[in-house]
Amino acid sequence: MSKFLEIPKSALTLTCLHKEAQPYILQELRPSLAPFGGPNEKRDGNEEELIQISIDKSNGNLRMYGSAQELLENINIYKNFPVNNKFFGTFAEPYQTRPRIFTSSKNEQYIAKSDVFVILQNMIVELGIQKSAELATVVACYLKSNQQAKLGNSIQFVKFDEKRFEEIEKEIKSDVSRRQHSPGEFQQFLGQFSSFSKPSIFEVFQRIIQREFEFPANQYFYEEYLERYVSSGASKETMAKCFYTYNQFSYVLYSIIHQNLDLFMPSRTVRVFEDGDQKFLMKSEIFNTKPQKSHVLETITMEELFKNHETHNIEFIRYPITRAKHKATPVQGPSGKFYILAIDFFFEYLRELIHGIKVFRQINPANLSNFLQKINGLDGIFYETETPYFLELNVALEANVGFIVNRPAKDVRNAKKDGFTVQNLKNELAHLGLTTTFPDIQNYAEVVYSEVDRRKKKNILRTCDLFDAVEQCQLNCILERLPKLKKFVHSQKGCYRVYGLKCEDCNAENPETQENQKLSILEKELADLKIAHQKILEENQHKSLEIQELQQKNLRLSVKNETNEVKMKHLSQKLAQTKLSIDDGNYSNACTSQQKIQCLICEKSIESGEDQIIRCPLCKRRFHSKCAINWLKEHQQCPACNGELPKQ
């Protein structure tokens, strides 16, 4: 059964992946996210490669998101929620996201009712004779029209009964098989289709997917998708076969849906949101009331609900709050709008200011106080309350900073290949001009660096980690200057998300926290010192080896120098004797003279007739045997010519 939870490859599109990635990227950086692949390129396990190409084309604007693999993983976390096609605007595309299994308070498995349509899509596409993107698209359009008609904007859940879905699969197979063996019916359809004009073909398709299909994309689908398909040059018979297949599948789906209407009937299921140790429900969902503020959804804790209200015949569905690294996963509210927790909204808003607009790198320091007061004035949206609450994602906050900037924004530089240090972080803060905006910002570098290093995904700190560190240092500076918002962050249990934040309320609740932070910093500094000490020891050892090699080389050169001096002395004496012989008129050859031969090792004469000698085979020089044996203990060459001496 689980295979029908997986989206068929033919239904996955790069266009959808790009639409899902866009909201995850900071608004100012979205133009840098190039499309993933060509217009007709298929999504076939090559997503990471295509995302990397897009990153490479971004002129460095997407470096904060890490590698292509990390960005893809975060997009998959971010997009994983029911009815996400409505949020991402992929109305005219197949369903893209695997249905998510939820667990009830009774430990039973549930899925969102909207995901029943995803399962039906997967079943039909896998049964199709041709598993094409066109078939998946048409099936999805039909199902989305039914989803809107049957469920509207509500988020409800149904038990994930594998046996029942297996029975539905069998019914689909049987019905598809029966309808595929009606050649007479197809010939009749072909006869009618052959005479259709282009507008008539559009009308046929509109009947196939039902007239209730009221999504904003229907005009695009009719005018763009069908226009391209009808004008592709395919024969009328080929087009008729496709439309006939689509029509048969629509009948099959219509039959299945109406045989299982109970799957789509209203049910008494309510989401219990879980965020760490917090459990809470939307008041408007549990009490079926309209929120007091259109953009705010207040919550009630499980404890308060059980204490003050009846909860009979309600199935509580555990709904964990999920977050990718840079964005929280959206949640659909009872009205059909999408929300995230206020604390997530707050940090995402500040991230837009820090890395998107880069306001604190450009702002005139004289205008900083006024700008921070504008942010502080958002206490009507970010207010102190012990209970979590949701904010609508479409809420627009003040972000116009054109009137207070007076310098160009510098970009975060790349980290070195071997990472970056605390001092590198401090230097980067100065390079970005943040020490001008926040003179105290470097005071947070040590504790922020320690935490970023602890959380890093690779063995070394990378450029994306440097972006995190720069952001965290600014968050500390901002919250220290905005006490109201600092109280808001504490009340929403978000202090841990600002590395090293000195929260008086947290310290009062847990006095050990501050000491633990100091200890963590000291431990990090000690570890850095140990690494530096080890590096110095290795360098000293390397230098010691170099010194030993130089000493040995110097000794060899000294011996060679002494040998050369002996040779020079001998040659000088020989030259002097030769000169004397010439001056005396004695022209006899040196080789015939009766001069005594000298051993160059001991510098003593070799007596005529002495037999305890060794002769060098190269230069014919003779040495005392004893001298030569002692010489060869430390040398290998002849002291006269550097040739090899015989060992005996």
TrEMBL record:
User: Keyword annotations for this protein?
Assistant: Coiled coil, Metal-binding, Zinc, Zinc-finger
Q: Which GO terms describe its biological process?
A: innate immune response
Q: Which residues cross the membrane?
A: none
State one molecular function term (GO). Answer: zinc ion binding
Q: Which residues form a coiled coil?
A: 512-553
Q: Which Gene3D superfamilies match?
A: Zinc/RING finger domain, C3HC4 (zinc finger)
InterPro entries (alphabetical): DUF7809, Znf_RING, Znf_RING/FYVE/PHD
Task: Give the matching Pfam families.
Answer: DUF7809, zf-RING_2
Any GO CC annotation of this UniProt entry: membrane raft
Name all RING-type domain ranges.
599-642
Domain of life from the UniProt record: Eukaryota
PROSITE patterns listed in its UniProt record: ZF_RING_2
PANTHER family attached to this UniProt entry = RING-TYPE DOMAIN-CONTAINING PROTEIN (PTHR21447:SF13), RING-TYPE DOMAIN-CONTAINING PROTEIN-RELATED (PTHR21447)
Q: What is this protein called in UniProt?
A: RING-type domain-containing protein
**Species per Swiss-Prot/TrEMBL record:** Caenorhabditis nigoni
